[in-house]
Amino acid sequence: MELMQAVSTDYDIAKPWFKRLTRGDWLHVAFVVAVTGYVLARYAGRFDVYELGVFLGVMPALVWLGLAFKPLRLFLPALGVMAMLGISAYGGDLTRADQAFALKYFLSSQSAILWMCAMFVLATVMYWIGIFIAALRPQAEFATTAGQMGTWFTWVAVLMGFTGLMVRWYETHLMGPGMGYIPVSNLYEVFVLFALITALFHLHYERRALILEGHQARALGGFVLLVITAAVGFLLWYTFDRGAHEIQPLVPALQSWWMKIHVPANFIGYGTFSLAAMVAYAYLIKQHETVARPTPLFALWLAGAAMWMMFVGPGLLRTTRSTVEIAIWATAGGALSLAFVAMRSRLARLLPSFDTLDDVMYKAIAVGFAFFTIATILGALWAAEAWGTYWQWDPKETWALIVWLNYAAWLHLRLVKGLRGTIAAYWALVGLLITGFAFLGVNMFLSGLHSYGQL
C-alpha cells in the first residue's frame, strides 16, 4: 500500500489526467508520435498487416510507460539514437560489422550485447561494494555513491542490450531476402531479453522504493543483479562455447507473427518471477535476524546454493567437464551462499523494510502472472495455427502450465488468505526453481515440439 501511495506523488491526482501532465510528459508524447510517423513513413512497406498492428499497439504502450516510469522519457530517445547510429553505420552492407570502428567495438549487435554483459557485471560489483562498505562499519548506511553507480551501470547495460537487439533485428534483414525477424527466436536472444526485462523491472521498483526507504533501497540491487549476472555468465558461455550469437534462418515453426507477441510476454513473466525470488531471498535474510523463530540457517544456505547451480549448471552439464571442475563450481556456489549466511545480521539492517520487500515481491509476481497468462493463451493460439491443436502436452507446455498453477496458487492464497512472510518468500524461491526448469531444464533434458530451443 505504501508503495502504491508513493507512485501518486509524481502527480496531483485531484486534477483531471490531462492537466497533471508536465511539459516533460508532453515532450515524451510528442517524441513517440514523431518516431511512429518516421517509422511508418520509411519502413511501413516492410510490415505485413500483423506487424503493423503490433507496432501501432506498442506505441501507445510506450507513451503510457514513459508517463508511469519517468526515466524512460530519456531512455527511449537515447535508445532511438543508438539504434539509428548502428543501423546507419551498416549502410546496407553486413560485412561492415568487422570493418567500421563503431560497429566492431560498440554498435553491432554482438558488440553492444557484450557491453551489456560488462555493464551488468560492473553494476553488480558496485551494488555489493556499497553493501560491504556499510556492512563493515557498524551503524553505517548503504554507501550512496557506490549504489548510485550500480544504478547507472544497470541503466547503461539496459541501453546497450536493447540497442543490440534493435540492431540485430536490422542485421537479420541484411542476411538475405525473407530473413528478417524479431530477435526473440532462440535461446541466445531470449536470454538477452530476460536479463533486460529483469533489470528494467528492478530499476522501476528501486525507484519507487527509494521514495520510502532512501538509499537503503539500493541494497536490494545487489541481490537482484546476482540473478542477472548469473544469466550473463550463461550467455557468455553460450556465445563463446556454442557460437550461439550467429544469426540463423528461422525454423518453419517460428515463421509466424505470433512469435512477436508471445515470446516478449512470456519473458516478462520469467523476468518478474526471478526478481520476486531474489527479493524473497533478501526477505528471508532480513527475517532471520529480526523474528523470534527465524528461518533455519541451513535452509538459507541451501536456497542460495540452489539458485547458483540453477544457472551455472547448464553450462557444466552441456560441456565436457571433469568431476573436479564441477566440484569446484559447486563449492564456489556453496561458499557464496555461506557468505550471505555469515553476513546476515549486517545485511539485515541494510535491506529495505519488510513491508517494502513484501510489496515488491507481490507486485512482481502479480505483473509476471498477468503477462505469463497472456503468453500462455497466445502460445495456444500459435500452436493451433502451427500444429493444428491448441494443446498437446508437449514438455514445454506442461511445464508452462506448472509454472502458471504455482503462481496462481500463490496469488490466490495471498488475496484470499493474506499469505505473507516466510512461507510466501520460500514459495517464491521454489517458484524460481520451477520457472528455471521450464525455461532451461526442459531445453536440456526433454524433447518435444519446442526442440528448436535445445541447448
Explain the overall architecture.
The chain is mostly helical and 455 residues long. Helix content is 76%, strand content 0%. The chain has helices spanning 2-7, 17-20, 23-43, 49-68, 72-90, 101-107, 109-135, 144-174, 187-213, 219-242, 259-288, 297-317, 323-342, 344-350, 354-387, 395-417, 421-445. The longest helix has 34 residues, at 354-387. The radius of gyration is 22 Å and the shape is globular.
Low-confidence sequence ranges: 1-9
Distance between the termini: 42 Å
Class by alpha and beta content: mainly alpha
Biggest β-sheet strands, sense, barrel: none
Mean pLDDT: 81
The portion of residues forming beta strands comes to: under 5%
Count of runs of 4 or more consecutive helical residues: 17
- How many strand elements? 0
Helix and strand run: HHHHHHHHHHHHHHHHH
Q: Roughly how much helix do the residues carry, as a percent range?
A: over 70%
What is Rg? 22 Å
Q: Any idea what the shape is?
A: globular
List the main descriptive attributes of the protein structure presented here.
17 helices
SSE layout:
Elements: H1 2-7, H2 17-20, H3 23-43, H4 49-68, H5 72-90, H6 101-107, H7 109-135, H8 144-174, H9 187-213, H10 219-242, H11 259-288, H12 297-317, H13 323-342, H14 344-350, H15 354-387, H16 395-417, H17 421-445
Short synopsis of the structure:
This protein has helices spanning 2-7, 17-20, 23-43, 49-68, 72-90, 101-107, 109-135, 144-174, 187-213, 219-242, 259-288, 297-317, 323-342, 344-350, 354-387, 395-417, 421-445.
